[in-house]
Write a structure and sequence with these properties.
The chain has helices at about 25-30, 40, 55-60, 60-70, 195-200, 200-205, 230-235, 245, 290-295, 310-325, 335, 405-410, 415-430, 445-460, and strands at about 55, 75-80, 90-95, 100-105, 110-115, 130, 140, 145, 155, 175, 175-180, 185, 215-225, 260-265, 270-275, 340-345, 350, 360-365, 370-380, 395, 435-440. The protein is an alpha+beta fold. It has two domains: about 20-60 and about 210-460, Naphthalene 1,2-dioxygenase Alpha Subunit, Chain A, domain 1; about 75-185, Rieske [2Fe-2S] iron-sulphur domain (Rieske Iron-sulfur Protein, 3-layer Sandwich). The longest helix is centred in the C-terminal third of the chain and has 20 residues, at about 415-430.
Length: about 450
């Protein structure tokens, strides 16, 4: 390991000011000739404290129950993509904890959301996690009462027995429902503020990226059960500090400790983690030819005067553009190569990149298990069509991501297997610990602390 990386931080620096020796993400991306979006080099970090986070936040049933009651019932959550509901009568169910929403494409082509519960006796209209098409109205399978797609009452069998019902007061319970970048969001709080306010900086930033998410389609969708609390598992994807020990094979091509961490307001944080640039952990600096070879190319083919990262980005633009049938010539090196992850509280991660086009979502099952969903998006074909979203591939805790050929072909399956394997031990270790909590880095793990500070605002309100 580079000895500089083991040297204690300068004691004259204020807490949170210490950074990795060597160039920052902005230093790497900013000078590139392809004019990266200003959003990528915008910085927004502040020291959030250094107290330990109690393990009970991950292991306590009481804490978990409080989250269900005060967090999941009051936050904006991505439920599906617009292309999951292409035609009037198409429906989709989104569930988290005890809460269940049914989304419907209405006859006027708008998308609405309702509580998945019959006003009569509470029967669910649809089973959890289901979707379908062709609905002309909602009909309760228990007694046959029905409602129009706009939620208004349609029919009550034996209406003579319900003189006390007023039609206008017996509609389905509507939920706030809005869209952003092709994602359909719902909120189980009927008094929720606007989605746009909740998104904060995201619309401004994502408008700067080529091939916005709204112009992409779902070409892979996986759902995996993970062995850990939803926060514990999600936080494993919020920092690059673990690359050194968990993904050491990536050190020659990933600037892990150089990653930039930012947060805006309560609901949004981000990292920008460079790819095609070596880790500062390496004991000696790679030559450009060595780096180019580590990126999978013949080092002798590196064009004279061109850096390995630039040459790799150029080759990726050409190869992926040809594969996808789109023009990637205007995509910046960073958007083409880097791991750029924006987190939206409480459970979603959006990557605007082309080479790493991931979308994550985490949902609790119980205090010790969660669901991790991974979507991969590709730019729509040049003809402007939007291919239908792929069916969900479900994996249990012991099934490798490598069993999904399309995902294995991206090279990411091995990385995700390494990440998820950690959770078995981390969950067990949290429960075995005599130390009361986890001790976080001030910078590289600041996003985790940001999540918990926002979580506390919901739990304490």
């Amino acid at each position: 390991m580079n000895l500089r990386m083991s040297t204690p931080s300068d004691p004259t620096l204020a807490p949170g000011e210490a950074r990795c020796p060597g160039p920052s993400t902005a230093d790497i991306i900013g000078p590139e000739a392809d004019h990266p979006p200003a959003a990528l080099t915008e910085q927004s970090y502040q020291f959030l404290g250094d107290k330990d986070l109690p393990f009970s936040r991950y292991t306590s049933k009481g804490f978990f129950d409080a989250e269900i009651d005060k967090l999941w019932s009051r936050t904006w959550q991505w439920a599906c993509r617009e292309e999951h509901l292409p035609r009037p009568g198409d429906w989709f169910v989104y569930d988290v904890g005890p809460y269940s929403a049914m989304l419907i494409r209405t006859q006027d082509h708008s998308i609405r959301a309702f509580v998945n519960s019959c006003p009569h006796r509470g029967m669910q209209f649809f089973d959890a996690g289901t979707c379908g098409s062709g609905k002309q109205f909602f009909r309760c399978p228990f007694h046959g009462m029905s409602w129009n797609l706009d939620g208004s009452l349609r029919e009550i069998p034996c209406r003579w027995d319900f003189p006390h019902i007023k039609d206008e007061a017996f509609g389905l319970t509507a939920l706030p429902c809005e869209t952003w970048e092709g994602f359909v969001f719902i909120n189980f709080d009927p008094h929720a503020g606007s989605l746009n306010d909740y998104l904060g900086v995201l619309p401004r930033h994502f408008d700067q990226f080529a091939y916005p998410l709204r112009d992409r389609y779902v070409w892979l969708h996986m759902k995996k059960t993970l062995p850990g609390n939803w926060k514990m598992c999600m936080e494993g994807f919020l920092e690059a500090y673990h690359v050194l020990a968990t993904h050491p094979e990536g050190l020659r091509t990933a600037g892990d400790a150089n990653a930039q961490y930012d947060f805006w307001g309560d609901h949004v944080n981000r990292f920008v983690h460079t790819v095609g640039y070596p880790s500062p952990h390496l004991p000696k600096q790679l030559t450009e030819e060595e780096l180019f070879a580590s990126l999978g190319h013949d080092p002798q083919s590196l064009p004279a005067g061109k850096g390995a990262r630039q040459a790799h980005a150029d080759l990726q633009r050409e190869a992926m553009g040809r594969q996808l049938g789109v023009d990637l010539s205007m995509v910046s090196n960073s958007q083409m190569l880097d791991s750029i992850e924006y987190y939206l509280f409480p459970n979603a991660c959006f990557f605007p990149g082309i080479g790493i086009p991931l979308i994550y979502r985490f949902r609790p099952i119980d205090v010790d298990h969660c669901i991790h969903e991974i979507l991969m998006l590709r730019p729509n074909p040049a003809d402007g069509s939007t291919p239908p979203p792929k069916e969900v591939i479900e994996l249990d805790m012991d099934t490798s991501y490598k069993t999904v050929p399309a995902f294995a072909a991206t090279g990411l399956a091995h990385v995700l297997d390494q990440d998820t394997e950690n959770f078995f031990r981390q969950r067990a270790g949290m429960k075995a610990a005599r130390k009361q909590g986890q001790t976080l880095g001030n910078y590289q793990e600041a996003r985790i602390r940001h999540v918990h500070q926002t979580l506390d605002k919901y739990l304490n309100s």
